[in-house]
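Lab notebook, page 48
Experiment: co-folding of the full assembly
Goal: obtain a model of how the components sit together before planning crosslinking
Operator: M.T.
Materials (sequences as entered):
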Amino acid sequence: MSGEFSLIDKYFAHQQQQRKDVILAQGDDCAIVAPAQNSHIAISTDMLVSGTHFLADANPAHIAHKALASNISDLAAMGASPAWVSMGIALPNVDDAWLEVFTTTFFKLADYYGIQLIGGDTTKGPLSITLTVQGTLPEGKGLTRSGAKVGDWIYVTGTLGDAKAGLDVILQQRMSDDVALNEHLVEQHFISTPRVLSGMALRDIASSAIDISDGLVSDLGHILARSDVGARIDVAELPISPALTAFLQQEDERQYYALTSGEEYELCFTVPETNRGQLEVALSNTPFRCIGRITGTRDLELHRNNIPLDWNVSGFDHFKVTV
Amino acid sequence: MSGEFSLIDKYFAHQQQQRKDVILAQGDDCAIVAPAQNSHIAISTDMLVSGTHFLADANPAHIAHKALASNISDLAAMGASPAWVSMGIALPNVDDAWLEVFTTTFFKLADYYGIQLIGGDTTKGPLSITLTVQGTLPEGKGLTRSGAKVGDWIYVTGTLGDAKAGLDVILQQRMSDDVALNEHLVEQHFISTPRVLSGMALRDIASSAIDISDGLVSDLGHILARSDVGARIDVAELPISPALTAFLQQEDERQYYALTSGEEYELCFTVPETNRGQLEVALSNTPFRCIGRITGTRDLELHRNNIPLDWNVSGFDHFKVTV
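Observation: model returned without errors.
Model output:
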């Protein structure tokens, strides 16, 4: 890197966060971190490319949020405590206004979650961002996709469906007459909040967990495939926001949205019968709902008030393929 | 990721290396690793973009080698032992032949250095590769750029200049009549070998270290800037290969190449007088040469057999700017 591209570094030197476990940050051949004794490290990498994951003229604040939040959400789904992030970023040119907005949003979110940027690489090229985030875990406490057992209860945090409704508004495929409602749903789409504290609180309670990034059916499908089990979901139990209820008149549609909406960054997790009492205490500050139960089949069965549904939901085929 | 792009994953499932400290590799929300007690972790990220760092039609074996070797070389410069790598890769299309060659070379190098691929992201987009490599270090033993002291001796491993000569051949700017010599130098350019064992051996001996990726003058410049010292180099001491001697007839030119050749992946390091004896034992299997000494000025002085030179070497200006 040389010339004007070295100037980019000034935007990445603004972070407030200085973690005690970062021995050496940017400016040497490597960063050095000091993991706590008896801790494991959870590591996730996501790559966002202009034209594939966002439009070239997308708001840089939204790009920064999406890049970091989707990665933090992966840490949340393991029950990890966010710690460090490394960034590779390619930019077609040095656009000061773009970099100012991008880095301001990035560091605001990083600081909120106690994450320190420990290094990376800036280069000229088609716009893309690759982040590797790392979080710490007490030894052996990571929440995986493979621990669900027959009889475990299935839960989700928050509400589901708003992100998909927000995408409808962005793509102008469906709009409400209520302008404020449209704006609220777009906001929900762009700045979903990873459930980090919930994930950490679930470490000793949940038998498996995943974050909802592709849609509940698809993501729960990963738990089922990895755990070699099935599930029965009652769509009447899916948590729906007042905003989605106002946006979609049909109950069927709302439930379909809740099943397939991606980038929600809510957690889907399973809990053994014996841990249900602890769950109420552990997540006392987070809305969550029981939506079904793990079964011994390898199918995902959809019911509504105990009546089977034959919906062909997006993501379900994907699950079938990956089993 | 969906459709044909999910098929890419099959190429990344081939690795032999299964490290004991990898608790969970690909397939969950995060990978999980278990660092050894009392160890620190060195982390480096490099991004390679088609059109910026290599030509779109470059040999995928060379791209894979460059991507991983340049990152491993950063670990070597810290004295770290390579452990884990995460990859973000964007590809314009699914080219089986390309992927086969890329992953074969990648895993051959990763296995050689005991590195396990622990996760990543594959996506559609303009060709680019971002790697985050991690290595382990005994607590407090990392070799930084900031530890050089006045009076320390300056060393380099191996020989310098071949990578730049190889680039001349590739760009057809200068060729030898000896076809085998040209091919040898091109090879040197593409598959330089990181000095991992040397870096580890230098942990208790060197006061500072860096890998030569931008050219000796530029990289030594980073040590001088970070350590707030100067240096005096005798260009007659620069280690030159027989190949470079055959390629370049003028002694001046060979020394200029040795000063400015990048992507050598040799180490430049400083050693206090009291550790010089240990150095001979520690690097008994690696060629290395003393090329100068750290001074109390903030300048890099070039001499030849004790006569000052006034060369304006590429990379030197860059050093001036970054001080």
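Interpretation: Residues 45 and 132 of chain B are 4 Å apart (CA to CA).
Next step: discuss with group before ordering constructs.
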